Amino acid sequence: MNKAFTKEDEGPQADRLDDLPQSPHPNYVTPAGLAALQQRLRDRHADLSALPRDNLDAKVPRAMAERDIRFLEGRINRAIVVDPAAQDTKVIAFGACVTVVDEDDVETDWHIVGEDEADPAAHRIAPFSPLARALLGARVGDVVEWAKPGGTVDLEVTAIRYFT
């Protein structure tokens, strides 16, 4: 048969979207972060089950839900749960809420959380972010250098807290 008369986009892969990329970093999560991932997975399963099976209009939303489920299952399977309450309270580590003061005496709290929980606008940063890498291992009184695109900023650590 002439190739011009075949539908190459139909077949076993036509209903499956490519997987979302997984982070190359270890998937450290807080207990709350793991619970949030599990809830997102339950929500996507519910979304998928609410879609009609034989409706062409549901084909793309169904493929998106299935792709999201595969992604979330991968994140959960790779999760390394770190209990912030088990950390040394004198050293900044994963799960810490850190208060720093910059060169202009502006005080800011940063919480080091898993990548799935990270929201820099809410001062929740992933452990592999430049700021978290600068802070990890520091103690109260230490000054760390945060390499930002606009230049390096010195931050003094004034408090370290861990919440469960």
TrEMBL record:
Entries under Pfam families matching the protein: GreA_GreB
Superkingdom of source: Bacteria
Keyword terms of this UniProt record: Elongation factor, Protein biosynthesis
InterPro entries in the cross-refs: GreA/GreB_C_sf, Tscrpt_elong_fac_GreA/B_C, Tscrpt_elong_fac_GreA/B_fam
Biased composition (Basic and acidic residues): 1-19
MF terms in GO: DNA binding; RNA polymerase binding; translation elongation factor activity
Domain Transcription elongation factor GreA/GreB C-terminal, residue spans: 88-162
Region (Disordered): 1-30
GO annotation, biological process: DNA-templated transcription elongation; regulation of DNA-templated transcription elongation
Protein name: Transcription elongation factor, GreA/GreB family
Source species of the chain: Loktanella salsilacus
